[in-house]
Design a protein that fits this description.
two-stranded antiparallel sheet; oxidoreductase; Nitroreductase; flavoprotein; globular; Nitroreductase family protein
């Protein structure tokens, strides 16, 4: 955290050390891989409610992510109110219509064809929660004095990964949604200009008849994403 006060460096012993043998570590790594292999991006949500405590705990987990200079330059707006979700859907779809009407360009639209997406986003109302993720481009003290945040996109990206993993671990599904532009979210959620919306996560339980695009099951093999030096 950044403060006007002089905060001296103080080295503390690791407070929560996890010790595992190599065999235990490999088993834990494989267990987590198996868990995350069952994560799917879905667009068909059940209206089944999700308790607020689950969302709050998942966001608290995201807040444990590392960040540049420990400034933690993120903000999460969790939206449950039906009227506000309806407004977000309407404004997101307005941007999506421009996107699919040619604003994206032929190559981008062709890349999306196997996913079966279009400008209609009913999940933004059906999912019991929308979590809007904001990147704080700068911070401000109580007197309005600004201070700089560092590695903001990287930090927010890591925190978002923590959040998605935490939601999946809780048995929930999430859909990442990035209408462009997203400035309407600042107005809808009364967030300051210092914050840039980067993503909407629709969160809830998958509907009984939920589907995923076949192409989404095609993942790059390890030898295409890893080289050991």
């Amino acid at each position: 955290m950044f403060s006007k006060d002089n905060l001296p460096h103080e080295a503390l012993p690791i407070p929560d050390r996890i010790e595992r043998s190599d065999d235990e570590a490999l088993e834990a790594a494989r267990d987590f891989f198996d868990l995350m292999s069952k994560r799917h991006t879905i667009r068909d949500f059940s209206p089944r409610p999700v308790p607020r405590d689950i969302i709050e705990t998942a966001v608290a987990t995201a807040g444990r992510a590392p960040s540049g200079a420990n400034h933690q330059p993120w903000f999460f707006a969790a939206v449950q109110d039906p009227a506000l979700k309806s407004r977000i859907r309407a404004e997101a779809e307005a941007e999506e219509e421009k996107f699919y009407d040619g604003g994206a360009g032929d190559e981008w639209l062709k890349a999306l064809e196997p996913l079966g997406t279009d400008a209609s986003k009913p999940h933004l109302e059906i999912a019991p929660w929308l979590i809007v993720i904001f990147a704080q481009r700068w911070g401000a003290f109580d007197d309005g004095t600004r201070f700089k945040n560092y590695y903001v996109p990287e930090s927010v990206g890591i925190a978002t990964g923590f959040l998605i993993a935490a939601l999946h671990n809780a048995g929930l599904s999430a859909l990442t949604h990035t209408p462009n532009p997203m400035k309407f979210l600042n107005k809808a959620l009364n967030r300051p200009d210092s914050e840039k919306p980067v993503m909407i996560l629709a969160v809830g339980h998958a509907a009984e008849d939920a589907t995923v695009p076949a192409v989404a099951k095609i993942k790059k093999p390890l030898d295409e994403i890893l080289k050991v030096y």
